Amino acid sequence: MYEAFNEAAEEILRGISEAMRGLSLSQVGGMLEALLLAKSERRKILVVGAGRSGLVGKAFAMRLMHLGFNIYVMGETITPDVGDGDLVLVISGSGSTTLPLTVAKMAKSLGAKVLAVTSHPASPLGMIADLFVNVPGREMKAREDEYHSRQLLGDHEPLAPMGTMFEDSCMVFLDSVIAELMARMGVSEEAMKSQHATIE
What we know:
Layout: H1 3-21, H2 25-40, E1 45-49, H3 51-66, E2 71-73, E3 87-91, H4 98-109, E4 113-118, H5 124-128, E5 131-134, H6 140-153, H7 164-185, H8 189-193
Parallel strand pairs: 1-2, 1-3, 3-4, 4-5
Helix pairs in contact: 1-7, 3-7
C-alpha cells in the first residue's frame, strides 16, 4: 500500500539532488549578476514559461517581487512593454516549446537580454539566449532507454512523468537563487514579509 507514493517521493528527491549537484556555479553566478544588475538599473524583468514551467516561474516572480525587483509574468494583463536593457527569463526544459521560444526571439529583437533556464543548452532557446543555466532533467535519450528497459522487464511507467524532474528541480533551484539574493542584498525574511500580499 502506498508503494507508488513512496517510490515516487524517493525518485523525485533523488533526481533533485542529482540535478543540484550537476549545476554549474559559474552559470548560476551569471544569472545572479544579471538579476542584480537589472535591479540596480531599475530594469524590468519578465518571466516566461509554458504549462508547469510557467507555474514555477510565477512562484519565482513572487519571491523576486518580495525582494523589490521590477518583475512581471508573461500573459498577465498588467505586463508592460519590454525593451532595451530589460531582462527576459525564459524557463523551458526542452528549450524548444513554441511560446517561450517565440517570446525569446521577440525579446532579443527588442534589445532585451534573454536568460534561459533549460535542460538543453544546445536547444533553439539555448542558442539564442545571452546566458543560460542548465538545470538537468530527464533527457529524451534516457526516456527512450528507460522505456525499452521497462518493456523487457515488465516494469511500471516512471513515477516522475514527462517534465516533472525538470520542474521540481527548477523550483528548488530558483528558491535557492532567492536565498542567495537575500544574502547578497542583506534582505531579511521580515523585510520580505512587508512586501507580501495583504489581500489574498
